[in-house]
Amino acid sequence: MAAVKASDNDMKLLWTPSQQLLKTSEWTKFTAFVNKKYRLNISTVSGLWQWSVDNISDFWAATWEYTGIISSTPYTKVIDDEKKMPGAKFFPGARLNFAENLLRFRDDRTAIVFKSETSNVAIKITYNQLYTRVAALSQRLREMKVVAGDRIVGYMPNTPDAIIAMLAATSVGAVWSSCSPDFGKNGVLDRFAQITPKVMFTTDGYFYKGKRIDTMPGLREITHELPSLERIIVFRYTIAESYDLDLHSIPRAVYADQFIKELKAPIKSKIEFEQLPFDHPVYVMYSSGTTGLPKCIVQGPGVLLNHVKEHVLHLNITRDDVVFYYTTTGWMMWNWLVSGLAVGATIVLFDGNPLYPSTSALWKYAEEIGMTVFGTSARYLAAVMDSGCKPGKEYNLSKLKMIASTGSPASTNIFRFVYSEIKSDVQFASISGGTDLNGCFALGCTNLPVYNGELQCRGLGLDVHIFNDNGKRLLREQGELVCLKPFPSMPLYFYGDKDGSKYFGAYFDVFPNVWRHGDFAEVTEHDGMILYGRSDATLNPGGVRIGTADIYKVVEQIKDVADCVIVGQDYVLADGTPDVKIVLFVVMQEGIELTKELQKKICSKIRSENSPRHVPGLIVQCPDIPYTVSGKKVEIAVKRILGGKPITNASALRNPESLKWFEEYTAQPPKK
Q1: Is the confidence at residue 629, as pLDDT, over 90?
Q2: Of 54, 170, 229, 582, which sees the most CB atoms within 10 A?
Q3: 356: domain range?
Q4: Residue 232 contacts residue 219 (beta carbons within 8 Å)
């Protein structure tokens, strides 16, 4: 790999791949594989992408073969109808198991490295050990009559046990869904109650900023309101093995080791992997819940195919790599990271505050275990930069070949910081996609240079373009990010969405037969992409997607507030990093004024019932809230006004005159 020297004022080209990397990369090998298989002569990155979207059946068949997807029964065709969007079915006829593909290796190479913020030494689990632990739990789940299609949930910190539970669940054909333990009670129930889980896995607590957080009181309340649960299985994590918490107050709860001891038959050495069709659900993910309860996004093994495409072809991950991504079990990057097991890489977990006890904590971890891929968010990198930490000077990062960043667009200052203070010859892969596809629409490519502020390329097999409001393609202009053709990791359906209307409304109600993702973006002169943030009303402070519904629930309980609207206001931090500030506009009851004391009360209640991330950066009293004729709050109209953008659909409002106050507020905010 080669760094590119440039002046501080004009550092556009930051990195180029070495000739050796160009010769040996998986992208290059796959291109040769495709050329031979289909008698082609593709020689460029853009050429491979164009072929992949012009010939999606051939591309996904080649990806399946090249990455070695395991199936007990072959597929009869790749896709039933390439023009059907949504509704196309991929790989009909195939029978396979998701967990089997992640457990294809059974050797003594390291599968998982784990460390919490309170650990002095990292824990390592080999592929053989991982298989053995999953085997025992899988067999026990079968004994308790868990069958294909049952929902199993994890209320878990980011530990190896979460992965083991997921693999055991999916090995028997159950559907996995998870939330991190820092979700409040309402946040967990809003998600899990919709899918009526049969089994829950959890821990006795978690660590954050050096403190043990007891989750038992919240667990009692949560499980009480999930009557479908037959067992609550508790992994020991924060309490010594020699000490048992009293689980009697949580009906049906049992420690995981005791649950395994209940096995009636000896543990089998080979897992019985349930063989299922390609459209059988594997994961339930969740939308942010902007307009109500979070949507339950059901995804199948197409997620795995897309993940290994990204890992192997785009990011050049092999069995020799040590791959880290800072995530929780409630973020799709956890699912993305875990799929690294299918490649045979070592995946690295961390539980806790990434900035504790200092901003250098994760870089020390990277040095200790020899990370080759370091994944994080732009906001984390900004925090490291602002702290004055210089990881490249403080730690030996000689093995680090790639830094990946997602969650929010990385500023040009972040790009420069990576190359000046972390590693001059590292590939910085800014990536962007979402929970909806459990992957990336745009991401890195080892065969391309890195330009400041740009994502290197669009994902293979994803016919991604930028549309204006009239559905015409744009080049080098901002517009809506769309995808024109179906892809395997599209949601199978939304749980509980019997007529498919919520699914259709989430992606397809703006441009006919076209997936509209809700991002503003631009295709650059280098055929890369620049992301400008969300085009919808989803809140994204610090790169963490959260829903307005969680905040509405709390504010609506405050009797002094008659109505409210919540929006995210885009702004730029001092270091140049784009961020979002949550602004809460409230209409007060007659005769009531918004005081500082009431603002504190609102913030405190939101923090306690949701999380610190949900707390508004600003609370402002306003006279009215805009509504549609059908009675829906029009958050996007307020957001557009705050961003200085025109309102083009005022005629659709029940009370368009309400917008005038927001326009005046934006022009000259009233004194608080």
Answers
A1: no
A2: 170
A3: 2-94+300-484+515-534
A4: yes
Angle between helices 56-67 and 26-38 (to 10 degrees): 120
Sign of CA dihedral 390, 392, 397, 401: positive
Locus of tokens 């085997």: 135
Report pLDDT for 574.
79
* Residues in a beta bridge with 179: 155
Q: Which residue has the higher pLDDT, 130 or 118?
A: 130
pLDDT tens-digit readout, 279-292: 999 999 997 644 45
Distances in whole angstroms, Cα of residue 640 to Cα of each of 140, 516, 569, 626, 659: 53, 18, 9, 13, 11
My answer on whether 49 and 131 are in the same domain is no
Q: How many separate helices (H) and strands (E) can be counted in the chain?
A: 21, 33
CB-based contacts of 635, cutoff 8 Å, min separation 6 = 290, 537, 548, 565, 566, 567
pLDDT (tens digit per residue) in 517-541:
988 889 999 999 998 766 765 577 7
Same domain, 546 and 600: yes
Could you give the number of structural domains in the chain? 3
Last residue of a domain, one of 245, 277, 309: 277
Mean pLDDT of the chain: 91
On whether both 201 and 308 belong to a single domain, the answer is: no
Q: Phi then psi for 454, rounded to 5 degrees?
A: -115, 145
Three-state secondary-structure class, residue 213:
strand
Q: Is residue 495 part of a domain?
A: no
Distance of CA 190 to the CA centre of its chain: 18
> Crossing angle for the helix pair 659-667 and 635-642, nearest 10 degrees?
20
For residues 527 and 463, state if they share a domain.
yes
Q: Is the pLDDT of residue 652 over 60?
A: no
**CATH number of the domain to which 602 belongs:** 3.30.300.30
Give 212-241 pLDDT, tens digit per residue. Answer: 999 999 999 999 999 999 999 999 999 876
**Does 233 fall in a domain?**
yes
pLDDT, tens digit (0-9, with 9 covering 90-100), for 451-500: 999 999 999 999 999 999 899 999 998 889 999 999 999 999 999 999 99
Using CB atoms within 10 A of its CB, is residue 529 exposed (0-12), middle (13-18) or buried (19+)?
Answer: buried
Claim to verify: residue 434 and residue 366 sit in the same structural domain: yes
Check whether residue 195 and residue 63 sit in a common domain.
no
